[in-house]
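Q: What would this chain look like folded?
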Amino acid sequence: MKLRDLMFVLPNLFTVSSIFCGFYAMTLCTGEATPTRLYQAALAIFFGIFFDGFDGRVARLTRTQSMFGQELDSLADVITFGAAPALLVWKWALEPLGLLGLAVAFLFAACGALRLARFNVLAIRNPAGGGGGFFVGMPIPFAAGGVISMVIAFQKARGGALPEDARWPVLGVVTFLALLMVSTVRYRTFKDVKPSPKTAALLVGILAAGVTIAAVSHPAWVLVAYFGLYLLSGLVESAFMLRRYFAEKRATASLADVIDEDEEDDGEPPVDEQEVL
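A: My prediction, written as structure tokens:
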């Protein structure tokens, strides 16, 4: 086998490793799903996020991008960040809620699959990747990260025991994450971020906030805060984009009205001065 062929295999190894993490997480959720096993399942999905984040970068670095790799990555994401977190959150919090809890867990997995299908269609329509540095809808790895961050935080900060009154808020969060994946809310890809004083200051601010949260409460809540910050960033930025869109639309409509008035004035017949006199 030639070196070039081995380079094509390398990014796919990262993707397959992500699939293994999702599969291992699901095996931990079966049978007697103790808090410790669910915590380990959340960590497995977290490592899956790591592998998923590097397969595309390795492919771009080695110039081995391919349609096969793209399709394999989507299938891996459905398993590791769709099915595995859905099963995890059902065993961890939603199972006692009966059919409603099962429906919400399925909604998360289904919306993740729909989001990936839409992403693939948009990628085929625009192979150049002219998305402007934004994802349409919350990326499924970040939605899965929101789920596992809650599991990890409750395990480390509260001993893994989820209070009964916390099950309904968890159900609401999972539903919101599922709907965000199939929404048109824009989330930054951070692929176009370049080193600059502004970027450095923002990074220092985020790290300082994480240190403050760890010192005040518990380090496990830092992960929840970071995923929550990313969730809010997309909502806030999309709100500003929507506001700008309507402002531009109003400005365009006003300009069109002015042009129409000028055309009407220009179309009036000339006034006969003798008739006026």
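Residues 220-266 form the longest helix (47 residues).
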